[in-house]
Design goal:
- By secondary structure, this protein is mainly beta.
- The protein has 2 domains: 10-278, Jelly Rolls (Sandwich), CATH 2.60.120; 286-362, Sandwich (Immunoglobulin-like), CATH 2.60.40.
- Helix content is 4%, strand content 45%.
- The chain is built from 2 helices and 25 strands.
- It has helices at residues 113-118, 278-285, and strands at 10-14, 19-27, 35-36, 40-42, 57-61, 71-78, 82-89, 103-109, 126-136, 146-152, 168-173, 178-183, 194-195, 202-209, 215-219, 224-227, 242-248, 262-273, 288-291, 298-303, 309-315, 321-330, 332-336, 343-351, 354-362.
- The longest helix has 8 residues, at 278-285.
- The protein is globular and about 60 Å long.
Length: 363
């Protein structure tokens, strides 16, 4: 018998910290029945979709040269955690690698989030999205899996779609063993790279500050935080009430003679909070000044908060990294852009407080 997902509204006051967290929705899969999450629909037939436990919508983009089952989505008990959601591929043999790796999607509308947000406690104007994932794969093959955790927006009268594009997402690329964070319209060039090994549970957090419009990404286990260089535009600054998980894995990799690639998810939560964590507070208030801007040769980057700069990475308008320079935690540094073509570049300014993104124009 399918168990209904229960969402709760309650208050947690962290004594001594001044942080008031109001949990609007959570899903830890502990109320789900063990075994298959539900029906895996075919991506190109969205009008006849069957929803699974917890009102998740599962769908797959299969390998173009095979009709064999290619993915499983199950609820499993894990020691010390309770239930988790596991996705894994089913390797197939005698099939060439796909040009586009097959995908398994899991999409869920967060229930009543608009209403819960409207009735939040006064002052809790930052929406916090968080979740945990674990990825495992057999190395040594040309095609390794990746995952993507996205939050997006769906209106009450819209149909839930299988493949959702942004606008806020955190992804893990198995081939590069990197976490990638991106946000449409917020000044992110498309990717941040943080070294991270697989085979360990990792928490990822997105903050949307509705008082300023800025977006923050945090990966606590690697002490990494990012702030958007620009606030979200008003048409993006809405409650993101759709959670979308993607597991991409070429089932033909290894010719069927490998262990399944898999990913697990757990402890999704959406909260309304009144402040950013200490790890992000300085990053939120720090203003980096770049002069001259536009620049001909040398740009000076400084800040009034005496935050030490450790590294600056330069990205062109396509999101390609074109330069990286290390510094010794100086609060004023110089960057030589004399050899660059004219255009707009984004600077990833990495500090001991996190990473800020600023724009510079090269004459």
């Amino acid at each position: 018998m399918m168990k209904k997902h229960i969402y709760i509204l309650y208050f947690v006051c962290l004594l001594g910290s001044g942080v008031q967290a109001q949990i609007l929705w959570s899903d830890d899969f502990n109320n789900y029945t063990l075994g298959n999450l539900g029906v895996i629909n075919i991506y190109n037939n969205p009008n006849n979709s069957v929803f699974s436990q917890g009102d998740w919508l599962l769908s797959e983009v299969p390998h173009t040269n095979s009709t064999a089952p290619q993915f499983q989505a199950t609820i499993e008990a894990e020691t010390g955690r309770g239930n988790v959601l596991k996705m894994q591929d089913i390797p197939i043999s005698n099939t060439p690698l796909s040009m586009h790796a097959p995908h398994l999607y899991a999409t869920k509308k967060i229930p009543d989030l608009d209403t819960l947000w409207s009735n939040r406690t006064a002052g809790n104007d930052i929406l916090k999205y968080e979740g945990e994932f674990y990825i495992a794969f057999e190395e040594g093959y040309p095609s390794l899996p990746s995952i993507n955790i996205k939050v997006s927006r769906i209106e009450s009268n819209d149909t839930i779609k299988h493949n959702i594009s942004g606008p806020l997402s955190i992804a893990y690329s198995g081939s590069a063993m990197e976490i990638i964070a991106s946000a449409t319209g917020t000044g992110f060039p498309g990717a941040f790279h943080t070294p991270k090994s697989p085979y360990t549970w990792t928490k990822v957090i997105i903050y949307v500050d509705y008082t300023t419009g800025f977006v923050y990404f945090e990966i606590p286990s690697v002490n990494t935080a990012y702030r958007s260089s620009n606030p979200l535009q008003s048409y993006h600054l809405k409650v993101f009430n759709l959670l979308h998980l993607t597991f991409a894995s070429d089932v033909a990799s290894g010719g069927g003679n490998r262990f399944p690639n898999l990913v697990k998810f757990d402890n999704f939560k959406v909260s309304a909070v009144n402040t950013l964590p200490l790890s992000l507070k300085k990053l939120a208030t720090t203003t980096f000044t770049i002069f001259p801007n536009p620049v001909t040769d040398i740009a000076t980057i400084t800040n009034s908060e005496n935050i030490g700069v450790e590294q600056i990475e330069v990205f062109d308008s396509s999101g390609k990294k074109v330069q990286s320079q290390n510094f010794s935690k100086e609060n004023e540094v110089q960057l030589n852009l004399s050899g660059f073509a004219s255009g707009t570049y984004l600077l990833h300014i990495k500090t001991n407080e996190g990473t800020a993104i600023e724009k510079v124009v090269k004459k």
